[in-house]
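User: Hey, my collaborator sent me this sequence without any context and asked if I could get a structure. I don't really work with proteins. Can you help?
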Amino acid sequence: MEIKEPVVSDRTFKFFTSIWIVPFIAFAIGGWLIYEHFSKLGPEITIKFENSGGLVAGQSVIKFRDVPVGKINKIEINNNGKGVIVYARINKDAEPFLNETTKFWIVKPEVDYSGVKGLDTLLNGSYINMYAKKGKESIYNFKGLNGQYVDINSGHYYVIQCDFPVKVKKTTPVFYKGIQIGEIDKVTLNTINKKLIIIARIYKEYGNMVNSSTRFWVQSLLDLKLNDNKLEVNMAPLPILLLGGIELDTDFSKKYDNGYNKIFNLYKSRADAKQRRVGTGKPHFERFAFKFKGNVSSLEEGMPIKYKGFNIGKIDKLKIYYNTVFKGFEAECLGLIDTSNFSTNGKDGFKNFKDLASSGIIAKLTKTNPLFNKSVIILEENNKTKVTFIKDKKLNAFIVPTQEYKASGIMAELSKVMEKLNSLNLQSSINNLNDVLKTSKNLIKTSKKVMENINKVIKTKEFRNLSKNLNGTLKNLNKTIIETRKVLRGYGSNSLFADKVESTLKELHDTSEQTNKLLHKLNKKPNALIFGE
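Assistant: No problem. I've predicted the 3D structure and written it out in structure-token form, which is a compact way to encode the shape of the chain:
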């Protein structure tokens, strides 16, 4: 048997063997994923906020156009002790948007009387929203906003001023015929003239709704109208009741001018905004001073100044003080009058008003409604009170003569009635009447008791037998009289005794007849003796 020699194989190392294929593929995939991650990884940025706003490191994200473009890595307190610093890594594809136009703000759930905001954060938590456009220079350090950023190019902005308290805030809607066409962007206070300054943003698609003829007013919560003898009640929708609202109207026949270089006034109601205006010129206000004595309790700032039924101005400032000379209160009013109401095509309104005042004018304080303590100042012609147009340096206003308040018309009649009522001692009269009523009640009670007692007496047997006994007595008396007359005939008709007896018998006979009549009445009506026939 032949034995074969074993063959020794070559044991040199070979890299590409079947056992290394799987680790190699895994390493290649891992390397590709690492490359993919770092290739998309953008720069790290810092954002300063007043507080963290519910952000969580390693979880909260940064969104741009509702797409996640970054993630928050770390949050730490600022070294200067003011606010926090948020460190975030931005994706590389969003790096071109990190420039001077970039804005960041925190979106978190907020609940107020206007509703719930940031509903998408209830499940995933707060996040940072980003607004940006492509710019020239890259920036990596930012200061976050306290609220949502609004692009000024997304609408048209207008300034509205207001001199009375109004329920508006940021995001309060602006309506035209019930359709929201904008919202309030900012509300602030002018520290110089103490007026509210409201910045309204009208959406871009409604930009042509506003021109220099536009008027804004506070939307009414409740409207009452009388049409065809029917009272119509219209209540504003619930959102307006909660948030308030501003409405506008525009004269579209006027050439569109975008309302530039105009500060709009906010009116209290549609009626005030739609009030007729006279004159042809632009508004021109001059300051005038009015001093009133006597009953000045109805004066208040903002009350109108009227001429011939038209509003031409209003009281801007008011000061009331005690006058020791006539021992009463005196009011010093500073009013603004729009002299453009007196303008004509050929003459300036201020000149026309100056001519009117120089020919004689007087200001009267008049109450428009007897039920309310509301007044207006009315200007009337008066030849005896000519106004010299020289400004008072202290008041910086033209002085207009005034007339002490006196009630007229229905107010005067009402005052007279009230004076008469006050002059009557109504309280004592009422007290006397009450006493009479009490006495009458007592008298009625007493009369009832007397009647009850009389009825008891009438019903007794003794009272009933009284008439019978009297009848018997009278019959006997009549018999006696007849017998007596027979006896007297024996003495002669001409004797003195016969005359005296005859006269006595006659009186007894008459008394008997009267008694019979009385008894007859008592038989028919027992209580006639007390109450008469």
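In plain terms: The chain is about 30% helix and 30% strand. You can pass these tokens on to your collaborator as they are.
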